[in-house]
From TrEMBL:
Keywords: DNA-binding, Transcription, Transcription regulation
DNA-binding region per Swiss-Prot/TrEMBL record: 33-52
PANTHER family, per database record: HTH-TYPE TRANSCRIPTIONAL REGULATOR RUTR, MYCOFACTOCIN BIOSYNTHESIS TRANSCRIPTIONAL REGULATOR MFTR-RELATED
InterPro entries (alphabetical): Homeodomain-like_sf, HTH-type_TetR-like_transc_reg, HTH_TetR
Source species: Dietzia cercidiphylli
Protein name: TetR/AcrR family transcriptional regulator
Pfam families: TetR_N
Domain of life the protein comes from: Bacteria
Length: 200
């Protein structure tokens, strides 16, 4: 169990990561400089650098913490829920949050996309695996008969379905819940049947 000093350091790291993401969402990557992030967190840039070498590290830390929360939800979900149902439930929860909540689905999507733009291709690939590995592992424990490859496909498709709803739901649509259900129903029941229905 972490001692008080370690907990304080972890809380400070989280505070800096949240400040970084709040700025990223509010003013974009250009405005979310280390200096601006430190100012928003009420510390010097030197103090910020005691915790993160680069601002991208703060964005990555933020996503790691969100994935850790998803891992907890996977582990605590009722036994009868399939991995896809658990993912649907997680997305429904974060999609229902207000856009001014830094942990809202739209904001998580912005952070993920910005990390993709700010990092090199090589770094992007290793960071994505590093961030998502705990979630893959949690789903694997929940569905031990599934191969590692299938677990990755299920998780990746669930994430893609959630992102697709955020990007493509019609303008003025009330909320994403119906679209999330439609996207996850499509994943759950397969696309072949839907393609057949669409061409009949």
């Amino acid at each position: 169990m972490p001692n008080l000093r370690e907990r304080k350091k972890a809380d400070t790291r989280t505070r800096f990561a949240v400040a970084a993401v709040e700025l990223l969402v509010a003013v974009g990557a250009e405005g979310a400089t280390v200096s601006a992030i430190a100012g928003r967190a009420g510390v010097s840039t030197r103090t910020f650098h005691n915790y993160f070498a680069h601002r991208e590290d703060a964005f990555v830390h933020f996503l790691r913490e969100q994935v850790a929360e998803w891992v907890r939800q996977v582990e605590q979900a009722p036994t009868g829920m399939s991995p896809l149902e658990v993912l649907r439930s997680m997305f429904r929860e974060i999609s229902g949050r207000s856009a001014d909540d830094v942990y809202a689905a739209e904001n998580l999507l912005v952070v993920g996309e910005q990390i993709g733009l700010l990092l090199s291709a090589e770094a992007r690939s290793s960071v994505a695996d590093d961030i998502l590995d705990p979630l893959y592992e949690a789903v694997s424990r929940r569905a031990p008969r599934l191969s590692r490859f299938r677990v990755r496909v299920i998780v990746d498709l669930g994430l893609a379905a959630g992102a697709s709803v955020l990007r493509h739901r019609p303008a003025g649509a009330q909320g994403p819940t119906d679209y999330l259900n439609e996207a996850f129903d499509l994943l759950e029941h397969g696309t072949a049947r839907e393609f057949r229905r669409g061409t009949e």
